[in-house]
Amino acid sequence: MMRPPLPVVVLAGFLGAGKTTLLNHVLRHAGGRRIGVLVNDFGAVNIDALLVSGQSGGTMNLSNGCMCCTTDAGDLAETLATMAAPANGLDAVLIEASGIAEPRALVRMVLAARSARLAYGGLVYLVDAANYVPTAAAHPQIVDHLSIADLVVCNKIDLCADESAAARVLDAVRAANATAPLVPVRHAAVDPALFFDPVERIVGDDGPRQLSFDELLFADEPDEHGPDGHGDHRHGDHLHDGFDSASLETDRPVNPRRLARFLERPPAGAYRIKGTVLIDHPDHRGVAYTVQAVGGFVSVDAGSWRGRTPGTSLVVIGAGLDPAAARDALEQTLIPADADDPTGILHLTRHLVE
Questions:
Q1: Mean pLDDT of 132-144
Q2: CA-to-CA distance for 52 and 150, rounded, in angstroms?
Q3: Which residues in 85-113 are b (16+ Cβ under 10 Å) and which e?
Q4: Is residue 33 classed as helix, strand or coil in its secondary structure?
Q5: How many CB atoms are located within 10 Å of the residue 181 CB?
Q6: Is the dihedral of CA 209, 28, 76, 351 positive or negative?
Q7: Of all helices (H) and strands (E), which one includes residue 162?
Q8: Cα angle value 131/121/142 (rounded, 5°)
């Protein structure tokens, strides 16, 4: 089966917001994923020393299978195309925006580079919760950057003076962007499942082996809750906190007009929507349409049902998501199309990636 398109996630945020910490966190918790990281200078992003195995030219190989490349705005599309080559076996790419371009310009370049091998994975914007109010007052462009984010990570929430101060920061962030999912975290500990799909690379554990980076980094750390056995939270890295999902699995076809509207205007708190759908139309019943949506940016691929039973499978992932409301919205896409709506399919196929 053809590999799905490589998601390209843009990571932005003001100085000190925690972009480097988030990059290292994602690499440490890659979960078997091979992640490409794009920066303009290795010195600008301090990849954890434990992850570095070698460097040559403009590429740094990381010992967990990930890779890091240097780039600039001029050769971004070319670099992304190279990283998307099947031989590299990457599962996702993270671009650190600082020093490359303004987030809005960088997003435009990533969207322009989309192809059957590359997909836009969203703009993730980091906020330093402890300093957001004075920083936004001194640098109002931050509010503009926030307004176009697909996911907002409110980092260092634990460093706010108290709960009411933290609540005021979250309210200020929501005022700048009322629709993007908002995830308050400590130590930039965002679950990579928000950004990337899981992979099925299984490492055998039936004999001597090299320790994983999770084991190397945390083997000597005590349980945050002491010896009482209440769980190891790894300095507040609640890897599955802060996001929810809703899914739909059925043999029924979708209404393409309703599905397109759902993908373009996702439920509140939704960050990613993905799946494969069946269209009950004479010219389309034999086509397996794979859909992806991030922040209202939609891509559709046409494939074959060969080896699969035709049907509809969709999942919505987000933060602050109402799973029941999202499930209801998914169900609405199954309402049959009107018999006199022969052009409804065009609302979906206009997003086909060539």
A1: 91
A2: 30
A3: eeeeebbbbbbbbbebbebeebbebbeeb
A4: coil
A5: 28
A6: positive
A7: none
A8: 25
3-state secondary structure of 19: helix
- Would you state the structure tokens that stand for residue 352, as one six-digit string? 């086909």
Both tokens assigned to 331: 């169900």
What six digits make up the tokens of 92? 């996702």
- Amino acid in the structure at residue 259: L
d(CA 214, CA 29): 7
Q: What is the pLDDT of residues 314-326, one digit of tens each?
A: 999 988 889 999 9
Residues 267 and 318: beta-carbon distance below 8 Å: yes
Q: Which residue do the tokens 């099947």 mark? A: 86
pLDDT higher at 200 or 255? 255
Q: Which two tokens stand for residue 216?
A: 């190397």
Look at the block and give the residue holding tokens 């960088």. 106
Structure tokens at 321: 């998501």
pLDDT (0 to 100) of residue 341: 72
Q: Is the dihedral of CA 134, 21, 200, 4 positive or negative?
A: positive
In percent, how much of the chain has pLDDT > 70?
Answer: 76
| Ramachandran assignment for 296, one of left (phi > 0), alpha (psi -120 to 50 degrees), beta (any other) | left
pLDDT band at 229 (very low <50, low <70, confident <90, very high): very low
Q: Which two tokens stand for residue 213?
A: 């980076």
Kind and range of the H or E run holding 71: none
pLDDT-derived band at 197 (thresholds 50, 70, 90) equals confident
Tokens for 186, please give them: 């400590």
For the ranges 73-77, 178-182, 342-346, which has the lowest average pLDDT? 73-77
Rounded CA separation 16/324 (Å): 37
